[in-house]
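Hi there,

I know you've been waiting on this one. I reran it after we fixed the sequence typo, so this is the corrected version. Both the input and the resulting structure follow.
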Amino acid sequence: MTRRIAVVSAGLSNPSSTRLLAEQLEAATTRALRMEGEEVEVDVVDLRALAHGLADRLVTGFATGELEEALEAVRRADGVIAVTPVFSASYSGLFKTFFDVLEPDSLRGTPVLLGATAGTARHSLVLEHAMRPLFAYLKAVVVPTAVFAATEDFGGSRATALNDRIETAGAELATLVTAAPAREVEDPYADVTDFATLLAR
């Protein structure tokens, strides 16, 4: 069975520690799923590239192009990895905007792994006081282990502890994904009336 994982990264810089953490979480989840005999398809949603589309969506009410594809990738995913940098002691505005424009109930029952990055460990509680409440409101099923990474966690002796948290979180997401039936992806063009029938009317 093929499982779809959507990776949402709100990193703004290039290279980005947020994107790096997202990639590591995706790799851990993919390994765990494949150990369970699952095939995996991954859709990466880089919000930095969608900033203009998100602003247009807020103003016009319509999503087009790459943003529409990104929203659909999250809607149809069997599991989501959502990672944000910390700004002003919370998730970034770009991150929040993306989840604001998702259709209602898009994440209902969907397993979600949370991650965040910041310059120092002082911001680590963002996972609990900001991100978990957001995804609880969206009716997602958040995995027990969320992963916070400060700049210093990516190197030296602290990297091992970070890698352990990443592997644990990835395994937890894989467990929730495999426990649920694969999502059926609806074809929006499956029931389209052909042109000849329309003319006959």
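Quick highlight: The chain has a mean pLDDT of 91.

Best,
R. S.
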